[in-house]
Amino acid sequence: MEDSIPNIDKYYITKVDAEPTSIYCHHDLMGELFVPIHKHQKAQMLYTEGDVVFVTTAAKSYFLPARHFFWLPAGVEHSIHPKSENVMIRNLYFPVMIGEDIFYSKEGIYPLNDLLLQMMLFTNRWNGDLDVGSPNYSIANAIKAILPQICFNKLPLELPVPKDYRLLSVVDYIDQHIGESLMFPVLASMFGFSERSLLRLFQKDIGMSFIQYYKMKRILKSIELLSEKRLTVKEIAEEVGYNSVPTFSNTFYSVLGQRPSDYLNGENVLDNF
After folding, report:
1. Residues contacting residue 209 through CB under 8 Å, at least 6 positions apart
2. In terms of DSSP bridges, do strands 68-72 and 108-111 run parallel, antiparallel, or are they unpaired?
3. Which of 41, 156, 240, 257 holds its CA 20 to 30 A away from the CA of 12?
4. Residue 209: CA count within 13 A, CB half-sphere
5. Which of the four pLDDT bands, split at 50, 70 and 90, describes residue 12?
6. CA-to-CA dists, residue 142 to 136, 175, 207, 210, angstroms
7. pLDDT for 16-61, tens place per residue?
8. pLDDT class for 132, splitting at 50, 70, 90?
9. Pairing mode, if any, of strands 158-160 and 60-64?
10. 3-state DSSP call for residue 44?
11. Are 218 and 61 a contacting pair, CB within 8 Å?
């Protein structure tokens, strides 16, 4: 824990919020596999390259794939857990303005279209505070201003964090056996529940049915495997428990708006926007 404290100071507390009116810019390889729980007074736009990043708040666990960004409102406690040390993070931290669009008050993951990608890459030449009135501030602020205009495709790449210890054991088992065809009656019996009581617990604790939760777990794992680019779509379908590639492809499309083969080839989901 002592090794983690300097990381928080470096990235979030002593620098990000030091100048309340500036836009703070930070680009770097993660270099570590965990940034502990923290918060800041500015809203955060976190874009990643190279691998998957997990962002956890008090209520949800988010799955951020490469070439997507996470919008985090100001004041929300969160931790960051990249899958590998080689993840490149590109961060812009924006001061909160009076009368802002409602878009900025809600957490969400969005894919980057080519316009946003080029604008984010342009910021690579900056690091630190962008002061009000400077050209760099105006460019960064334009990135923020355009988000509500083009980011309509919020992706459901998050799962609620269970609060009930009994459900924690169940979802941990699901994680460990995601490649198997889990039968709900067997799962309920294994953990001492009736089917009805476990269904109620899922709905009450995390606001999702077992089927919804299980589907999202499988899709999130498939995105992780697709990002590694070492398995075929057929092999990935089998790894996450699908016997039928078309069924896997259709389910994947219903969540991300593109086929697994398109995602594997790096095609942009927002090309038609």
Report:
1. 199, 202, 203
2. antiparallel
3. 156
4. 6
5. low
6. 10, 40, 36, 41
7. 999 999 999 988 776 666 788 889 999 999 998 877 888 999 888 8
8. very high
9. antiparallel
10. strand
11. no
Cβ contact 116:90 at 8 Å: no
Q: Which two tokens stand for residue 81?
A: 């857990």
Looking at residue 270, its pLDDT comes to: 36
Q: Which residue type, as a one-letter code, is found at position 160?
A: P
Task: Locate 240 and state its tokens.
Answer: 């996450």
pLDDT at 1: 37
Write the single-letter amino acid at 103.
F
Q: Which helix (H) or strand (E) holds 138?
A: helix 135-150
> What is the Cα–Cα distance from 265 to 259, expressed in whole angstroms?
10
> C-alpha angle 16/87/142, rounded to 5°?
50
How far is residue 100's CA from residue 147's CA, in Å, rounded to a whole number?
12
Contacts of 164 (CB under 8 A, 6+ apart): 201, 205
Burial class (CB in 10 A: 0-12, 13-18, 19+), 6: exposed
- Alpha-carbon distance of 65 to 47, in angstroms, equals 9
CB neighbourhood size of 58 (10 A): 10
d(CA 54, CA 62): 6
Give the number of other CB atoms < 10 A from CB of residue 70.
Answer: 22
Vertex 248, ends 243 and 254: CA angle to 5°?
155
Cα–Cα distance for residue pair 64/91, rounded to 1 Å:
14
The answer, yes or no, to whether residue 115 has pLDDT greater than 80, is yes
Measured N-to-C along each axis, helices 245-256 and 210-228 cross at an angle, to the nearest 10 degrees, of 100
Residues 6+ apart with CB under 8 A from 36: 1, 4, 7, 8, 79
Which residue has tokens 């995601």? 178
